[in-house]
Amino acid sequence: MVTDERGQLLLVAAITVAVFIVSFSVVFNSVVFTEQRTGGDADVAASGATLFNHEVRETTSELLIRINHASVYNDSSAIHDAVQNNTSRYNVLLAESYGDSSPVSVNVTYDEVNSTLGSRVVQRSDGSIDPTSSVTDRAIGWFTLNVNASETESFEVTVDNQSNSLTYDIERNSRGPGLNITTSGYAPQPTVTCQQTGDRVLFDLVSGSTFRGNCTFPSFQEELTGPYDVTFDGGTDETSLRYELVVNGTGTGVGASDCSVVGDPTIPCRSDAVWTAHVVTEYDRSRVSYERAQNVSVYGGGV
After folding, report:
1. How many CA within 13 A on the CB side of residue 159?
2. From CA 114, how far away is CA 224, in angstroms rounded?
3. How far is CA 79 from the centre of its chain?
4. Under 8 Å CB-to-CB from 92, ≥6 apart: which residues?
5. Helix-strand-coil percent breakdown of the chain, rounded to 5?
6. Domain residues of the chain, as ranges?
C-alpha cells in the first residue's frame, strides 16, 4: 500500500511538471510573437522571466509536497538529496522543452543551506490513536486522517491555540455506512455523516472537508489563529487509521519519535519535510539574463 501511494504521488508530480511545461510553452510562444511585433528584447525577457518565476514558484510547491509525502526520511540529508535529485530531473525537462525550440535558457537550483525543514508526523499503516504523538506550539501546513470506517468506533482530535480550541469527535455511523463528525468548541457544528469510499473516509482538517467534498466541517485554520497544539484521544481498540500532520520546526514540540528508530508502521513517527524552500531561478535570453532567489512556502503558511 505504501509503495502504491508513493507511486501515485510521483506520478502526479510528473504530471504537474508536464502541465507546467506545456502551459509555460504556450505563454512563452505568445511572448516571442510579441517581440517580433515590437522588437523589445529586454522587455520581452523581463516579461518572460517574471512569468517563469511565478510558474516555478507554484510548481516547486506542488513538487515538494509530493516529495515530502512520498517517503519517510531518516535525516535532513536524505530529504535534501531527494529534493536535489528531483530538481535535477526537473531542469532536464525544462532544458529539453525550451532549449531546442527557443533562444531561452532556464534553470532552477534548490539551495538546501537556506531552506527550512519542518516535521511530518505520519502513521503509515492502520493503527490505533497514540496520545503521545501530539504537537505543541506549531504552525500546521497539512493534517489528514485516513480512517478505516469498518474498524473504527470513535476518537477525538483537538486543535488548540491557547485561547480557543476545536474538537473533532469522529465515530461510526450507527444508521448505515460512513463516519459521523461532530465539531465542538470555538466553532461548533452539529453532527454530519461523511460517506466512505470503499471502507475508508479521508478527512482534511486544514480544508474542513472530506475527500471529494461529500461533507464539510469547520476548518481549524480558518477559525483559529496559530500556532497550534494538537492532541489525540481514543481507546486503543476503538480506532483504525493512518494520518499525516506537517508542522514547522524539527526540535521540541513534536511528540512522535523519529522514523529512523520506529520500525512499526502502525506507530506514529516523525520525518523531516521541507517547510520553506530557497530556490534560485535563472532566465537567459539573447543578451539579457535574470537571476532571482526566492523563498517558497511549501504549504502556503508563510516562512
Report:
1. 26
2. 30
3. 14
4. none
5. 35, 40, 25
6. 2-116+279-297, 129-239
Q: Tell me the H-state helices in the chain.
A: 2-38, 41-70, 76-99, 220-223
Alpha carbon separation from 192 to 60, 85, 179, 210, 238 (Å, rounded): 36, 44, 8, 11, 20
pLDDT tens string for the chain (303 positions)? 444 444 444 444 454 554 444 444 433 343 333 343 344 566 666 777 888 888 888 889 999 999 999 999 989 999 999 999 999 998 888 778 767 767 888 899 999 999 999 999 999 999 998 888 889 999 999 999 999 999 999 999 999 999 999 999 999 999 999 999 999 999 999 999 999 999 999 999 999 999 877 899 999 999 999 999 999 998 667 799 999 999 999 988 898 999 999 989 999 999 999 999 999 999 888 778 889 999 999 998 644
Among 281, 145, 120, smallest CA distance to 207 is for 145
135-138, strands of its sheet edge to edge: 135-138, 228-233, 154-160, 165-172, 179-185, 189-194
Nearest to 269 by CA among 278, 277, 260: 260
Cell of 71: 517517503
C-alpha grid cell, residue 298: 511549501
CA 59, CA 19: separation in Å to the nearest integer?
Answer: 9
- Provide the grid cell at 39: 522588437
The three cell numbers locating residue 214: 461529500
List of residues 6+ apart from 12 with CB closer than 8 A: 66
Q: Cβ distance 119 to 271 under 8 Å?
A: yes
